[in-house]
Structures are given as structure tokens and as C-alpha cells.
Description:
TIM Barrel; 11 helices; 38% helix; 10 strands; eight-stranded parallel β-sheet; alpha/beta
Amino acid sequence: MEYTTLGETGLSVSELCLGCMSFGSEEPWMLDEDEGRKIIDRAIDLGVTFFDTANAYSNGESEEILGDALAEYDREEFVVATKVRFASDTDHPNATGLSRKTIETELAKSRERLGMDTIDLYQIHRWDPETPIEETLRALDDAVRRGHVRYLGASSMWAHQFADALHTSDRLGLERFVSMQNHYNLVYREEEREMLPLCDREGIGVIPWGPLAQGFLTRPHEDHRSTTRSDPDNHHDPDDAFRAGSGLEINERVEELADEKGITMAQLALAWQYRSEYVTAPIVGTTSIEHLEQAVEALDVDLSDSDVEYLEEPYEPVPVFGH
């Protein structure tokens, strides 16, 4: 395993972040506590120190499973990230959003479920158009000052919104976001237009979700069928979105180059992420120890400049989604 720092902070993280959305019981494809712990234990064996979850994943069960598993280790060896924006275990008007009330209530629940006094990275899980950004940032700043949170992160939004949030923090003397968890992969590169250059300029760590395009980059396109797991935003079938434009040709090139190198398509797609000048650590979710091991092995895959050019060349603009 390789390690790096998150943006311009001094926080060291593994170059693979284990996504924990697959832990819980809300959906048929999720893993229960025993199976989830096996994934977490193996990730730790492989050197993974960075874990990402959210209050809304399986109504908080994901946080509980991760917290219980890490309690068996030296907690300070790991970096735990969670999120706030969507409802966890309750359903009322203030259960969602980024108001001070919602943030303070959900942060207390997340700390309890994770069994942590202080959460390493606390992220807003999308933008909240109903709450002034000043209110959100002041509530998050207070959480840092109380010692309940160490660092602040954001997730998929428009670049102008993120720039506004960073400027507001600077103007008011508040804690800044240090990371961006955005949607980015070989068949969805719209983030390269504005968000990623903004992150680079501002020293923001980038931890993409969906690095394998919800499975589209893991197998030949003719093998794709509907699955029980759909796009987290439930706006559409992700296969339909990724097939649009140049998606099928990119899928074919990933298959071809992976065959040449004797690796899986998923490993090749992840190797492209690891090589990116923008990416700190892609968030990889899995329900398989074998796939987890392959994802770590992909850190050693060598892609030449010509390989990268071949993979990227067909890309055509696609509609923005994931916000």
C-alpha cells in the first residue's frame, strides 16, 4: 500500500479508500455485520487506513459496522470519513439538509454509531440549496472547535458552489473544506472542466466516488445487465448513462488493454485513477474480498503515457449527473 496526504493538510491516508456503502441491510446486495467485518479486516491487512461511510447508508448501520470493526484495533491508526445531508434513522423535516440543527443532531448520532469522540473527516453529502452556506459553515466550524471533527470535506456539487463555500470560509475566518468527494471515472470526466482545476488551485484533496462507473468499467459492455444495485441518486439506470456518447468504445478499450496486460478491467480503470494528477484516493466499495485484493494490486499496475492517451482519446462530453 502507498500513502499520501489529503490535499494540503498533513493528514496521511492510504491511496485507496474503502467505501462502506455496501455494509448494512437496507438493500439485498448489502453485507451484514459479519460479512462486512471480513472486508474491513482484510482491507486493514492490506494496509488500507482510509474508510468512508455516511449517516444515511443503511440508516446508520454502515457507521455502526465500521465503528464496531475498528474498535478491535488501535483507532488512531485509521482515518474515518462520514457525511451529513440525508436522513439516517428518522424521517422529519429537520432530518435532512445542512442546517445547524441537522448538522449538530446527525453529528452526535454519527459519533455514537462510530464509537468515536472525534471524526477525522466530516463531509457535506451534496449541496443544500435551502440553507445559507454561512449557516452550514459556521455549524461545521463550531464542530471543529469543539473537538468533534478534525477536518471538513464536501461532495458532488457545481464548481461555482464549491468556490463560493471556500471564499465564504476565507471571508469569515472559518474552517475550510479540505477535500472533494466527486463523481469521476474514465466514462465520466466532466469534473475535469472546472471542479478538478479548482481543487488543484485551492489545494483540495480529491477522493472520487464511482471510480468504476457503478460496475460499467468492470466487465465488457455486452455482459451488462440490470442489477439490484442502481445509481445512488436513483435518477436513471447508470448503464444507460455510461453507454451514452463514447462509453461503449471506452469500455472496449479498457477490455482490450486489460487483456494485453493480463489484469482485470476493474484494475485497469483503477490504475488510471491512481495515475491521475488530481486524485488523492479513489473510494472503492466492494462486497468481495477478491475484488478488494485486486483493487489494491492495481496500485502496482504501470500505465504508460500512450496507454492513458489510448483510454482517454474517445471521450465525448456527457450530461452532468451525480449532484
